[in-house]
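User: I'm new to structure prediction. If I give you an amino acid sequence, what do you actually give back? Let's try with this one:
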Amino acid sequence: MRVKKGDLVQVLAGKDRGKQGRVLVAHPRDRRVVLENLNLAKRHTKPRPMRDSTRMGGTNIIPGGIVDRPMPLDVSNVMLVCPTCKQPTRVGVRVKDLKGESVRVRVCKRDGCGQEID
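Assistant: Good question. You get back a string of structure tokens that encode the predicted 3D arrangement of the chain. For your 118 residues, that looks like this:
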């Protein structure tokens, strides 16, 4: 999987097609990513006490109700946005030598760009 936590991606399919957002969580084994404020679903939650409430006074309670929560998207439905050309792009990997060690670097595969992503 060539998408990491913190990357800016664009959604290719689904109800949020065309929108851009940051990756909050990446699950490489499941090939899924959770994006900030995209692919939201409503979840009904119960009120429950907080774990680390202050010992002074009463217990703090997380309110219940209907909450919008971002749900995982398949990684094939998102495309990384290149930080230099600001376009959605496929990601290539180039091996680079740094101080005698070979390091894998992600690169933009857009024609005319080819810049390193990280």
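You can read the tokens as a compact description of the fold. Here is one thing that stands out. The two ends are 15 Å apart (CA to CA).
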